[in-house]
Write a structure and sequence with these properties.
single chain; about 675 residues; alpha+beta; Elongation Factor Tu (Ef-tu), domain 3; 3 domains; 8-stranded antiparallel beta sheet; 6-stranded mixed beta sheet; about 45% helix; about 25% strand
């Protein structure tokens, strides 16, 4: 039976004017308490309680509060408690509250919200504590995602439920340590265990925004690094539905994650699908939003990211932008290969109301709701919170979480478990329950498809690589031919260098011989210089004799003059001897001048020969060096030739590989077309 659509504003006004209607056969009671109001709680619950769910402000002593509440409800009642980053409550006992969201600062306050659920609703309730092995999650060297999933799966295999799990009457209500960063490891392990074919919905315990502590409890023990799975087996006549709401619209832009650490929840790079290159995530987002890195945080205030599962958007919210490391961390794990869509924030109050009205079509009146509402919805939509009246006439409690669960981990989403009592006159349809098989398969496939998306991106890169290789095959073929030609040319160069080396060596040999002959000639010139010097000394001696002879002739003339007539003959002889001495002196002077000229010429020849010898020495040295260089170059050429000759077989093999690549490309294109 189709309901008429009433404008949202009119609906809200009607709700505010109407009194809260609590069914006479009440099954659910909700409370918003301070610690002083816990006393006599049991007496204020008008039925036997099968399950009590409570959310406690982090500012309160968690163990003390939960123990006091548990002591108020002795018997077979089961408990589920968690700390909060803010509390939600629509009705306290039978009084409608003015606002769903508590007004305290997120993570602070002294509020306790409780929901007591009658044992009449359930055939059975089982609370199971599951270790998450997250103690090392912040360490530099920690377990891999696959190792974590395997360990958690082993713990799940130990759970033995006393009833058959049926998705139509069994629900897995989930509460997780909010600082474990293990929501998706748990969910993947649940699907891998193949033990629990039912929907799982819930959230991660909240706390103060310093992210130091969160706690969960089953009423007997307080847990860290654990999850509490509450398996609810409903009695016939009771139903549950899953309401999911998020105030975002998907824009046309998306990014493919190419480098990420799912354990640390860090993303490093996106894949540029046109250039097929990895681009740093901050650089990529700055390019999209046309901003500087230091302005990116502000530009993202009205935006978030999301991925598609079962044709629905699951939000992934940014936790931190590290400009120094150029890394962005998220509140959910993000894996390589995932496609993140840009989401733009819309009005929370109107979206929640419209989507809930769509949700309750073809359903009876709800008898209660447990709300798992992301702390980021409270932080980013503060002005809209007072206008959320959607649950004002439905007994509802909830908490601001550090993450939500609906099949997989989500951010900035309201996931509500809504309970109903069958109305024979009303149809009951619920998208998540009626389409469970496809939803469950989609959630399970989400984890498998992560790896498939990585392979798809690898396939994309392989296709591009094949295409590029194919385009460059002619160049590669030409390169092979060029290498072969280079081998031949190198052989020719080697032969030419051999001939050059022989010529240089011959020239060096001839220059060396000339140098030897020049050295002999220099030696002979040196001997000649010595002999001429000896002759010069003899001439000096003869000159001395001539001088003395001339002196003796002079003395004889003087003596002959004294002797008078008797000395005349001796005088003539003395005169002739003097003339002879003078001629001898003249001849000796001329000979001396000539020999001096010869000596000067010999010296010039000797100096010229020394210069020539020096030049010849340089030529010989240069020729020797040149011969060495040519020999070295020839050796290198021989080595290069040997290498090229050794690669000849490989070059032939490369030709074959090029042909094979062409065949692979053809085969790949055929596979793609099919």
């Amino acid at each position: 039976m189709k309901q008429e659509t009433v404008p949202v504003i009119d609906q809200i006004a009607n709700m505010e004017q109407a009194s809260v209607k609590i069914a006479s056969d009440q099954y659910i009671a909700t409370f918003s308490l301070s610690p002083d109001e816990i006393s006599s709680l049991g007496a204020r619950i008008p039925f036997d309680t099968g399950l009590l769910v409570g959310f406690v402000s982090q500012d309160l002593p968690f163990d003390e509060i939960t123990t006091r509440i548990k002591n108020e409800l002795p018997g077979q009642c089961k408990f589920l408690f968690g700390t909060t980053a803010g509390e939600l409550c629509s009705i306290h006992e039978d009084q409608s509250l003015s606002e769903l969201y508590s007004k305290s600062t997120p993570g602070e306050g002294r509020h306790i919200v409780l929901m007591a659920l009658s044992s009449m609703i359930f055939d059975d309730v089982r609370v199971e504590a599951v270790p998450l092995f997250s103690e090392d999650i912040a360490a530099d060297r920690s377990k891999t995602a696959a190792e974590r999933v395997k360990l958690i799966e082993a713990e799940l295999q130990k759970i033995q439920l006393p009833f058959k799990v049926n998705f139509q009457d069994t629900l897995g209500m989930t509460l997780i340590d909010g600082l474990s960063s293990s929501e998706n490891f748990l969910m993947e392990a649940i699907y891998a265990s193949r033990k629990f074919p039912c929907l799982f919905a819930g959230g991660s315990a909240g706390g103060k925004l310093d992210f130091q502590d969160t706690f969960i409890s089953d009423g007997h023990k307080t847990y860290r690094h654990h999850a509490l799975l509450v398996f609810l087996k409903l009695k016939p006549g009771f139903r549950f539905g899953i309401f999911k709401s998020q105030n975002f619209k998907k824009l046309g832009k998306s990014f493919v994650v190419s480098a990420a650490n799912p354990v640390k929840r860090e993303v490093f790079e996106f894949l540029d699908r046109e250039a097929l290159e990895n681009v740093n995530i901050i650089d990529s987002l700055c390019d999209y939003f046309k901003c500087r890195p230091e302005d990116l945080q502000d530009r993202l205030m009205s935006y978030s990211f999301g991925l598609e599962v079962n044709d629905e958007i699951y939000v992934r919210s940014i936790m931190n932008i590290d400009l120094e490391r150029k890394v962005i961390s998220f509140y959910c794990d993000v894996s390589p290969g995932e496609e993140l869509f840009i989401l733009e924030r819309t009005d929370l109050a109107s979206v929640t109301e419209n989507e809930f009205q769509e949700f309750i079509k073809d359903k009876p009146e709800p008898i209660g709701a447990i709300l798992n509402d992301c702390i980021l919805r409270r932080v980013f939509n503060e002005s809209s919170l007072p206008h959320v009246h959607t649950f004002s006439d439905i007994p509802s409690i909830g908490f601001s979480t550090f993450g939500e669960i609906l099949g997989v981990n989500i951010n900035q989403t309201l996931t509500a478990i809504v309970l109903f009592k069958d109305d024979p006159g009303r149809d009951f349809t619920d998208d998540y329950v009626d389409d469970f098989v496809n939803k469950y398969a989609g959630f399970k496939d989400y984890f498998k498809s992560r790896r498939e998306r990585v392979l798809a991106n690898v396939n994309l890169l392989m296709e591009a690589t094949l295409d590029r290789v194919s385009r460059n095959l002619p160049v590669m073929t030409a390169l092979v031919d060029a290498l072969i030609d280079a081998s031949k040319a190198t052989n020719q160069v080697r032969n030419s260098l051999g001939r050059v080396q022989e010529t240089v060596e011959s020239y060096a040999s001839q220059v060396g011989a000339s140098q030897d002959q020049n050295s002999l000639l220099a030696s002979s010139v040196g001997s000649l210089t010595t002999n001429v010097a000896h002759i010069e000394s003899i001439l000096r001696a003869l000159g001395d004799i001539a001088d003395r002879t001339n002196l003796l002739a002079l003395n004889a003339s003087i003596e002959a003059a004294r002797a008078g007539e008797h000395g005349r003959g001796f005088s003539v002889v003395a005169e002739e001897v003097g003339k002879l001495a003078d001629k001898t002196q003249v001849s000796l002077n001329e000979t001396k001048d000539t020999i001096s000229g010869v000596i000067a010429g010999v010296k010039r020849i000797s100096e010229s020969m020394e210069n020539s010898n020096h030049v010849l020495n340089q030529i010989v040295t240069g020729s020797t060096d040149l011969a060495g260089l040519v020999q070295n170059l020839s050796g290198q050429t021989v080595q290069a030739t040997s290498i090229l000759e050794a690669q000849a077989d490989r070059l032939d093999k490369m030709r074959e590989e090029i042909a094979t690549i062409e065949k692979y490309k053809d085969a790949y294109q055929m596979l793609v077309r099919t």
